């Protein structure tokens, strides 16, 4: 057992001491301050400077008894992050350490949205109507990434922006944030930024930053460990395409984080139109357009997406694109692909779908592009999942998340689409295209459905689609799904951000446009502005534990009306539950404090080699609110967004004694016995044994 002082400013270890400063006040003069575990005391305002005289007043009672943390306290105070020193003990055991969480005494199930006037997060993702009309792809929005960039023990936030650049906010504690974008060097001005991920790509222990943009591909910014970033211009990343979401994981089992980038398009004929040639009375594509468009036998025009990119990481932050056609990717018949898929990629997530310990890949694709499910052989070679194993997908697949919704030990997954929850809107909206095989697929074809799909894992490598049974088949224009156990009952609930700048499915506007004569380029772009706006409330669905869900967004304080794109989860106040942040279009970002007070167990991982956060590890908690709970540590995978690398489990009761198990990507296994509620556990792969 070690003495601990935890610091919100710059936590450091001095022997057996851990320093943490909180956003309150310093006790001084009276050496028996209760906040130092030594009794009462007077208070020093948080705005005062910690002078040597005042330091002596605080530290005097510690030196005579040889208190091992005296110098740690002094250095923490002199760091000037100031506010309150809290004495706290870290408990250590074989391969882990843990500390108590500061769980609020009062609260309720759900969230409270904290405005920028409280938090200092005043970021708004601006997109003008003119910019949206010029390129409708910009309406796909932007995301948000969470992570502790400077190692001070507080999770920071990075917002991508379409017009006006990106923003990085440093968490000061006490729900206060400071804009440090320019000091950190990550504004990314002059581009339409989409997705972002914090990840330790070079294995040096700090979080680096990956940023995507429309037409600009992917950029890498390396962290110096103090929250200052330098762009790695020789990283090997491709600086073109309409890059959207990202996922990272150890695909080859070598300990480094490989990267998958889902690409969409950089421009679209929905905004620009397309000039065709007429040869002998037949319409033909211009030669320069033939790699981006196809004419169908029925005379229709099919717009192709851009190829996704899978990168191999050398462990030092240098990436090499993987060929689609050299045998790394095999189709369902086991044959190498003949060409890169030209899909409209929106989201990608790495998860162990077939339960062999290696991360597989699920890619959500828009329009007629089928979702891609790539099963990893453990060495970074993939084959397409059989249509007999997964019988259907969504048509306009936007985002995905995985969870064991019925706690049978197997991960299920939800993909969201755009089907309205209101009958009237369903009758006035039209799909812009027919879904392939929707009505009568053959046995070897995978249907695409114009609604959400919830895939229940049968445990034999196949899935049953149960969205209508579960009440999750429709959630309006949805961008992603997040499984999160909001009420800490042991079953993961669902959060869904919704809304669109313009309702481009409005059938009346579409009919009027089609009745007019063909438009020129300017008229084509301007048609977007004829559609009505589509602000929608965010949705929350409580998992009832019986494969059914009920909508409780208003009850849980998660029903803000507007257009919300990216969403991430992070413990922003260090109380051990996950708060939620959204990137809202033309509105202030949503910062939602989780108000729960029920017992919880928070878990972080210290991975080996270059995978310092243990990405891809599966974590099990036994003996909590339900007999067994499991979650996987992910990096990226959210629509345009990235969670902080922490998982939270429902403890059930403060008296429960539980067991944690971690199944690492390396094949090793860690076990922690005697786990207690309302504590955070950091588990180290270095002490792990075999499975």
Features:
691 residues; mainly beta; 6-stranded mixed β-sheet; 5-stranded antiparallel β-sheet; 55 strands; 34% strand; globular; disordered N terminus
Strand-residue fraction? 25-35%
Q: Which consecutive residue ranges, at least 5 long each, have pLDDT under 50?
A: 1-68, 77-87
Structural class of the secondary elements? mainly beta
Q: Using DSSP, what is the number of strands?
A: 55
Tell me the number of helical segments per DSSP (H or I, 4 or more residues long): 10
The end-to-end span amounts to 28 Å
- Helix proportion range: under 10%
Estimate the global geometry from the Cα principal axes.
globular
What Rg is obtained from the alpha carbons, in whole angstroms?
A: 26 Å
At a glance:
The chain has 691 residues and is mainly beta. It is 9% helix and 34% strand.
Detailed description of the structure:
By secondary structure, this protein is mainly beta. The protein contains 10 helices and 55 strands. It has a 6-stranded mixed β-sheet with strand order 1-8-9-54-47-51, with no helix packed on it. Strands 26-25-20-19-50 form a 5-stranded antiparallel β-sheet, with no helix packed on it. The protein has a 5-stranded mixed β-sheet with strand order 27-31-30-29-28, with no helix packed on it. The radius of gyration is 26 Å and the shape is globular. Residues 1-68 and 77-87 have low confidence and may be disordered.
Helix-strand blueprint:
Blueprint: E1 2-5, E2 13-14, E3 17-18, E4 21-22, E5 26-28, E6 42-44, H1 52-59, H2 70-78, E7 84-85, E8 87-93, E9 96-100, E10 111-113, H3 116-119, H4 129-134, E11 144-147, E12 156-159, E13 167-173, E14 176-179, H5 181-184, E15 193-199, E16 208-213, E17 217-223, E18 229-231, E19 243-249, E20 258-263, H6 269-272, E21 277-279, E22 282-284, E23 293-295, E24 301-303, E25 309-313, E26 319-321, E27 329-330, E28 345-351, E29 360-365, E30 372-376, E31 382-384, E32 392-394, E33 399-403, E34 412-416, H7 423-428, E35 447-449, E36 453-457, E37 463-465, H8 467-470, E38 482-484, E39 493-496, H9 507-515, H10 521-526, E40 536-537, E41 539-543, E42 549-551, E43 561-562, E44 564-570, E45 579-584, E46 590-594, E47 600-606, E48 618-622, E49 628-632, E50 635-636, E51 647-650, E52 658-663, E53 668-675, E54 679-684, E55 689-690
Parallel strand pairs: 27-31, 32-35, 47-54
Antiparallel strand pairs: 1-8, 2-3, 4-7, 5-6, 8-9, 9-54, 10-46, 11-12, 12-13, 13-14, 15-16, 16-17, 17-18, 19-20, 19-50, 20-25, 21-22, 23-24, 25-26, 28-29, 29-30, 30-31, 33-34, 34-36, 36-37, 38-39, 39-41, 40-43, 41-42, 44-45, 45-46, 47-51, 48-49, 48-52, 52-53, 53-55
């Amino acid at each position: 057992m070690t003495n601990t002082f935890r610091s919100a400013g710059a936590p450091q270890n001095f022997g057996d001491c851990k320093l943490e400063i909180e956003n309150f006040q310093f006790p001084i003069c009276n050496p028996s301050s209760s906040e130092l575990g030594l009794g009462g005391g007077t208070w020093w305002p948080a705005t005062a400077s910690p002078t040597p005289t005042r330091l002596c007043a605080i530290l005097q009672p510690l030196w005579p008894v040889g208190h091992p943390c005296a110098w740690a306290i002094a250095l923490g105070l002199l760091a000037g992050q100031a506010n309150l020193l809290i004495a706290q003990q870290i408990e250590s055991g074989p391969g882990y350490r843990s500390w108590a969480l500061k769980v609020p005494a009062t609260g309720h199930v759900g969230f409270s949205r904290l405005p920028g006037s409280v938090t200092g997060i005043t970021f708004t993702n601006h997109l003008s109507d003119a910019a949206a009309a010029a390129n409708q792809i910009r309406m796909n929005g932007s995301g948000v990434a969470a992570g502790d960039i400077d190692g001070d023990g507080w999770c920071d936030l990075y917002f991508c922006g379409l017009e006006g650049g990106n923003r990085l906010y440093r968490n000061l504690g006490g729900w206060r944030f400071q804009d440090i974008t320019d000091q950190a060097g990550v504004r990314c001005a002059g581009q339409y930024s989409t997705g972002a991920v914090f990840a330790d790509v070079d294995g040096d222990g700090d979080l680096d930053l990956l940023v995507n943009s429309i037409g600009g591909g992917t950029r890498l910014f390396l962290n110096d460990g103090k929250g200052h970033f330098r762009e790695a211009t020789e990283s090997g990343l491709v600086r073109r395409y309409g890059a959207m979401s990202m996922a990272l994981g150890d695909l080859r089992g070598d300990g480094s984080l490989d990267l998958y980038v889902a690409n969409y398009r950089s421009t679209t004929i929905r905004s620009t139109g397309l000039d065709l040639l007429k040869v002998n009375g037949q319409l033909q594509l211009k030669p320069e357009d033939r790699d981006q468009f196809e004419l169908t036998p029925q005379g229709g025009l099919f717009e192709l997406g851009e190829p996704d990119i899978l990168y191999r990481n050398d462990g030092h932050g240098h990436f090499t694109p993987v060929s689609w056609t050299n045998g790394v990717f095999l189709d369902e018949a086991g044959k190498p692909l003949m060409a890169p898929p030209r899909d409209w990629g929106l989201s990608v997530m790495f998860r162990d779908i077939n339960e062999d310990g290696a991360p597989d890949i699920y890619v959500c694709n828009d329009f007629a592009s089928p979702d891609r499910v790539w099963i990893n052989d453990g060495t970074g070679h993939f084959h397409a999942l059989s249509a007999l194993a997964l019988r259907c997908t969504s048509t306009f697949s936007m985002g995905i998340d995985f969870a064991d919704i019925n706690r049978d030990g197997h991960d299920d997954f939800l993909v969201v689409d755009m089907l309205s929850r209101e009958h009237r809107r369903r009758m006035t909206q039209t799909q812009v295209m027919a879904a392939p095989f929707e009505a009568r697929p053959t046995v070897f074809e995978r249907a695409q459905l114009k609604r959400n799909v919830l895939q229940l894992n049968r445990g034999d490598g196949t899935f049953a689609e149960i969205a209508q049974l579960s009440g999750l088949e429709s959630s309006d224009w949805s961008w992603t799904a997040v499984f999160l156990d909001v009420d800490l009952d042991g079953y993961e609930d669902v959060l869904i951000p919704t809304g669109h700048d313009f309702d481009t499915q409005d059938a009346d506007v579409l009919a009027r446009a089609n009745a007019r004569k063909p438009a020129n380029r300017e008229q084509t772009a301007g048609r977007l502005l004829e559609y009505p706006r589509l602000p929608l409330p965010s949705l929350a669905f409580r998992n009832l534990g019986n494969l059914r869900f009920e909508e409780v967004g208003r009850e849980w304080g998660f029903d803000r009306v507007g257009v919300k794109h990216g969403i991430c989860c992070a413990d922003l106040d260090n109380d051990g539950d996950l708060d939620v942040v959204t990137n809202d279009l033309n509105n202030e970002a949503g910062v939602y404090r989780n108000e729960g007070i029920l017992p919880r167990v928070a878990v972080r991982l210290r991975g080996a080699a270059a995978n310092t956060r243990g990405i891809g590890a599966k974590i099990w908690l036994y003996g909590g609110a339900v007999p067994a709970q499991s979650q996987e540590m992910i990096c990226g995978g959210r629509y345009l967004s990235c969670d902080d690398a922490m998982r939270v489990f429902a403890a059930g009761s403060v008296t429960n004694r539980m067991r944690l198990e971690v199944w690492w990507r390396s094949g090793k296994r860690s076990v922690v016995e005697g786990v207690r509620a309302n504590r955070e556990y950091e588990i180290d792969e270095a002490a792990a044994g075999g499975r």
